[in-house]
Amino acid sequence: MPNERCRQMEQLSREHDEGMAFADRISELASDGGEDSLAEGVRLVREYYQEELEQHLQHEEQTIFAPIVQFHREHFSLCVRLGTEHGLLRTMATSMRLETAQRDLPAFADTLRKHTEAEENELLPLVESLFTPEQLEAVMHFTPLPGTPPGRGPGS
After folding, report:
1. Residue 155 has pLDDT above 60, yes or no
2. CB 109 within 8 A of CB 101
3. pTM for the complete prediction?
4. Fewer Cβ atoms within 10 Å of its own Cβ: the N or the C terminal residue of the chain?
5. Domain tally for the chain?
């Protein structure tokens, strides 16, 4: 995604680029269809969720969705839609199993891809246009809580 971002949004935008590449990798493994490829896809989704995705989702929820809901209620529906997709991605990642991987891996990749495109094309430009310099700095300097919240990790 070659969108030009303000410096405070660069990290989130890089994470979106990485998420798109990850979705492509998962799609490739699902297309292969072999048991080893599917098992690798399940492992990668679980690992991605634990090590990257959950922190990314929390980052957006705490530093972007919360200020929009508080100060820019006219964009509430966008936060609800994207927040619902966050929940779906969490559910898909934490319930990924080899037995249903042939179906679930492409669905996860497609959901991640569409969600990321929406954030990159709708949410981030909105944030750049609405947020104060202080709010943008808060986005840039987000510090995640240590560990994954209880009940949100694979096997929960």
Report:
1. no
2. no
3. 0.89
4. C
5. 1
Residue 2 forms part of a structural domain? no
- List, for residues 36-95, the tens digit of each pLDDT value: 999 999 999 999 999 999 999 999 999 999 999 999 999 999 999 999 999 999 999 999
- Whether 45 maps to a domain, the answer reads yes
